[in-house]
């Protein structure tokens, strides 16, 4: 546990940071009032202080107050095994994640989920959108884990019925569970229910249509992995005669309630389909870097009005490095060839990591910006560092220069959750010890198939081959 200054943990706060990152960019001489878990006032310091004479201003020189970031695509229960994915070709879910998640019990699900939630908070994410775990057992243990860590979570329940060969009974069972999940978290401050189908062809047409309309009616988000790898696109064509996104389009399942993960392999028609239907996308640049075939055309998304956020896909929960990767991947995959040195002007990646992510996660009315009425999900970031003290462009610095060690405090729903990287109200070190032990046993016992050697063994292999 970590002791933070009491004045920063009061239930009502009047904060005066050196800079506040508002929707139109950084502003100075700004004050922010937090009360009842929300931003109660934001504006020029003198006026805000006048409106709240009972509050003592907390001066924050050298600090930027900014919205907490939104991870638009995560798998909290896979995070502990992320280093198993290094060097692996696509379709890791078949060889690693499905066997691994199937071996997890409720207690481990909770602990691994809580550790992943801590990683997210440390990386500056105040919300994650979880695309659903394949682990058996009650998803409530994962909800408890994120709630205890203090992370806002859009929690997907996997609703696969296996495809068009499923029976009417199987379909009914899946949809009953889905309805129960949507009702279960009503009124929860931090957990927001969502439905998920791993990939479109993992469900029947009926269930795809039903899940989409249930989400539409419940103002929830329907998450699925779409057009990520060549293998997955081709599998969909073989099974259903359509590419994954086309299949969803044909069924009328697309719309603002839909959040597709990846969208890395898109035709021009498909980009138009996304824009026309208001479908959201999670652009996952680190997933492309680590295990993808392609990079989603996110800069085109911005220009053509496709709604999108940035997601980690359980790779690395560091929002600053994610923004950096988002820009770098666009630049290398698209902008360099066009002689475009800007590649989104820096702000594109900041906006879509915060505001845009909240929008596609279906909670844009709650979070994603420092604005009156929004829940107080925010970060205090030390910008008075050797790297940034001479800045001429704070927004772009945050994308290219900043890192998570500069995050001094993380607040979710108006409550300080981390101070200098560590929880203020629970013991992270004992959880780490517990998960470390269990993770190694789980990996040793699960029938996973790794195709790539760990780095040190790979080095040895290369040396031996050269000698031979
Ligand atoms: Zn994923």
Protein architecture, described:
The longest helix is centred in the last third of the chain and has 18 residues, at about 430-445. Strands 1, 2, 3, 4, 5, 14, 15, 16 and 17 form a nine-stranded mixed sheet that branches. Strands 6-7-8-9-10-11-12-13 form an eight-stranded parallel sheet. The chain folds into two domains: about 5-65 and about 370-425, Roll (Urease, subunit C, domain 1), CATH 2.30.40.10; about 70-360, TIM Barrel. The chain is built from 17 helices and 17 strands. It starts with 12 loop residues before the first strand and ends with a helix. It is of the alpha/beta class. Strand 7, helix 4 and strand 8 (about 150-160) form a beta-alpha-beta unit. Helix 3 (about 105-120) runs parallel beside helix 4, helix 3 (about 105-120) packs across helix 16 and helix 10 (about 285-290) packs across helix 12. It is about 40% helix and about 20% strand. The mean pLDDT is about 95. The chain has helices at about 45-50, 90-100, 105-120, 140-150, 170-185, 205-220, 230-240, 245-250, 270-275, 285-290, 300-305, 320-335, 345-355, 355-360, 395-400, 430-445, 455-465; strands spanning about 15-20, 25, 30-35, 40-45, 55-65, 70-75, 125-130, 150-160, 190-195, 220-225, 260, 280-285, 305-310, 380, 405-410, 415-420, 420-425. Bound molecules: zinc ion (ZN). Zinc ion binds near residues 73, 75 and 313.
């Amino acid at each position: 546990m970590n002791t933070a200054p009491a004045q920063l943990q009061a239930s009502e706060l009047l904060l005066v940071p050196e800079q506040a990152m508002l929707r139109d960019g950084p502003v100075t001489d700004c004050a922010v009032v937090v009360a009842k878990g929300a931003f109660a006032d934001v504006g020029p310091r003198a006026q805000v202080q006048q409106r709240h004479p009972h509050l003592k201003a907390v001066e924050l020189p050298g600090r930027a107050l900014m919205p907490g970031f939104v991870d638009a695509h995560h798998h909290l229960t896979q995070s502990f095994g992320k280093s198993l994915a290094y060097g692996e070709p696509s379709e890791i879910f078949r060889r690693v994640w499905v066997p691994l998640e199937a071996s997890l019990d409720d207690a481990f699900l909770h602990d691994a989920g809580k550790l992943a939630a801590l990683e997210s908070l440390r990386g500056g994410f105040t919300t994650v959108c979880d695309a659903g775990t394949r682990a058996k057992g009650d998803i409530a243990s994962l909800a408890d884990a994120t709630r205890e860590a203090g992370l806002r979570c859009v929690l997907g329940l996997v609703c696969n019925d296996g495809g068009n060969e499923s029976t009417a009974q199987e379909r009914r069972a899946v949809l009953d569970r889905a309805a129960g999940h949507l009702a279960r978290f009503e009124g929860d401050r931090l957990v927001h229910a969502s439905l998920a189908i791993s990939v479109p062809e993992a469900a029947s047409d009926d269930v795809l249509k039903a899940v989409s309309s249930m989400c539409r009616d419940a103002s929830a988000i329907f998450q699925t992995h779409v057009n990520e790898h060549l293998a997955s696109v081709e599998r969909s064509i073989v099974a259903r005669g359509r590419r994954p996104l086309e299949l969803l389009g044909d069924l009328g399942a697309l719309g603002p309630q839909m959040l597709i993960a990846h969208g890395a392999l898109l035709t021009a028609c498909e980009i138009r389909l996304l824009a026309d239907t208001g479908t959201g996308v999670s652009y996952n640049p680190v997933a492309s870097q680590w295990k993808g075939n392609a990079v989603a055309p996110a800069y085109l998304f911005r220009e053509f009005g496709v709604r999108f956020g940035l997601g980690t896909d359980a790779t690395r929960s560091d929002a600053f490095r994610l923004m950096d990767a988002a820009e770098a991947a666009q630049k290398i995959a698209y902008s360099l060839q066009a002689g475009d040195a800007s590649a989104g002007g820096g702000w594109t990646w900041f906006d879509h990591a915060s505001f845009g992510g909240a929008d596609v996660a279906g909670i844009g009315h709650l979070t994603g910006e420092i604005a009156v009425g929004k829940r107080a999900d925010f970060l205090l970031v030390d910008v008075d560092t050797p790297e940034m003290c001479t800045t001429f462009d704070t927004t772009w610095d945050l994308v290219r220069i900043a890192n998570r060690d500069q995050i001094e405090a993380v607040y979710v729903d108006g409550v300080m959750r981390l101070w200098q990287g560590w929880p203020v109200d629970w013991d992270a070190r004992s959880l780490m010890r517990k998960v470390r032990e269990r993770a190694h046993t789980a990996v040793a016992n699960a029938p996973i198939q790794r195709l790539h050697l760990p780095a040190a063994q790979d080095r040895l292999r290369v040396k031996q081959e050269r000698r031979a």
